[in-house]
Amino acid sequence: MTFETKKDVLDWYEKQPRTLTKEFMGAIAWNEVKNYSFDEKFVPVLLYMRDVEALTDMYYDELRRTPTGKDPIISKFMERWSSEEQTHGELLNRFLNEAGFETGEKWQTQVRRDVSRFYTVNNYLIGCLTNLIGKKFTATHMTFGAIHEMSTTQGYRRLEELAGHPVLSEILRGIIREESAHTHFYRSVARIELQNSEFAQKLSRFIVKNFWTPVGSGAKPKKESDYTIATLFGGENGLDSIDKNVSPRIQCLPGFEGLTKISDKIGQIVSQQTLIV
Predict the structure, then answer these.
(1) Is 1 contained in some domain?
(2) DSSP secondary-structure letter at 249?
């Protein structure tokens, strides 16, 4: 499905029903979580995923200070996006608690507190840079968003496959449906913005090629990011989902032909972690 304008994309998105409704969450068999085994090696993975979802409000606040975030179409999308992402984090946190891994009532406050000062200062400087460039940076923001949503979705799919926990699988499938709608918005707006400007194409490709890192990197410690990546995408055929479902879809965007940065970076992390082990 392709769109002519950003307004068309927003209209499509707003017609998509929420998956994680009160009815959906009320029907989750929380009382059955402990009836199935859950490998503890996935606990750090779930904690990382939970924290990244919970930190989206911070990213939202940062983006609202830029021309991208002030765009009325994108701003309208991000109001719902931020709310949905928070729900994803809350569901993952409850699963951990139901599985016997206590996280504390004020875990969200602690997650925000643990974000490094370097990350905060760095993002402030990036915000200043984007304001200097102006609306031409929107294509870069949207492309990053598309990559993050797509790679996150593949991470959830891998976790569902590897963990094999029926209740967690139900939760993850609901999250994946919402993440897929987010992906379609980001990628559609990125295509429109990139089509409109050769400068935006060159800028976006340069920044993705030279500075893209997996979602959560920087806000979360590198060792936690690397562990999550290696656990999900290591092993036989582990990188297939990225090679088949992320890189080719980014390469279809204007100006991104042949770019293999996402597959290369994730493959590099997996290889390095394998050597450490």
Answers:
(1) no
(2) H
